[in-house]
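Sequence in, structure out. Go.
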Amino acid sequence: MFLNTHFPNAKKYWYEGKFYDWSEAGFHPMMHALHYGTSVFEGIRAYRTAKGPAVFRLPEHNDRFLVSAAVAKMKCPYTKDQIAAAITSTVRENGLDSCYIRPLLFYSYGNLGLVPKACPVELAISAWEWGAYLGENAARGVNAFIVPQRRVHHTQFNMTAKLGGVYVQSTICGLEAREEGFDEAIFLNMEGRIAEGPGQNVIIVKSGTLITNGRSESVLEGITRTSLLEIGRDLGYKTVIAPITKEDFFGADEAFYCGTAVEVIPIVTVTDGSGPAAPRVKHTIGTGKPGPVALGMIKAFGDAVTGREPRYEKWLTYIGK
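Output:
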């Protein structure tokens, strides 16, 4: 029996063309993905709008989903349109006005060798209500911790892909940051510069300019990140994609995480724990409170995803009935 305690209002999930009650499961423990992380996924949100629920940037998410499948050497048995239809059907079937959506493509039951030569590729889609990723901390800003582990390097795999196995590093370091008393982690890359959070990009603000980094800095160039850069330019800010040093980060006027789950969350302090033998130093970002640029971006992003700003309605896929 699987309860939906941590998945509010989740009633059914979509698996291989059919809907199943949330409490049902028929997954075998020898499924390849459970042992080796041979899965790819997306994190997508739908929002309540005046025209009913709408999925934010669904085509872009599905494009990346299929790129991830190709990187993982998976032959996806569904087209982009079929995946989109299954996603919107899942939101509709659960009667959700706003929700988080998780498509998961994975090597299923077959053989257990590292090469999944007998394992079919299967698709599951789930949706549930999920509020602010970091809860109440989001409103006052979060305290970040630079972990000693370096982010997986862009020369090691295609950074456009969301590969399940790679996120084991994110889980370990996210737990470590919390065990140390912080809200969230930040990775440096192999070069010693700021990379990203466990599942979020980082944007800093300096003299009215929004600065974030690119794929060569060992980051996933997130869809929320891309959206915020466009929104920022429309608000009159200059945007720059360039490496971010620790000194850049510590001396920023403002900083914030961004991503589908976190949306936009200001970072108000960061503690440098990147050197295991070095003393930890806490740095206050700007005034130590969410700044005007971050707060303005939060409002503008909220207007975009809920259909209140017409220029961004191009990003919405309405669910309909």
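Check: The longest helix spans residues 58-71. Residues 199 and 252 are 21 Å apart (CA to CA).
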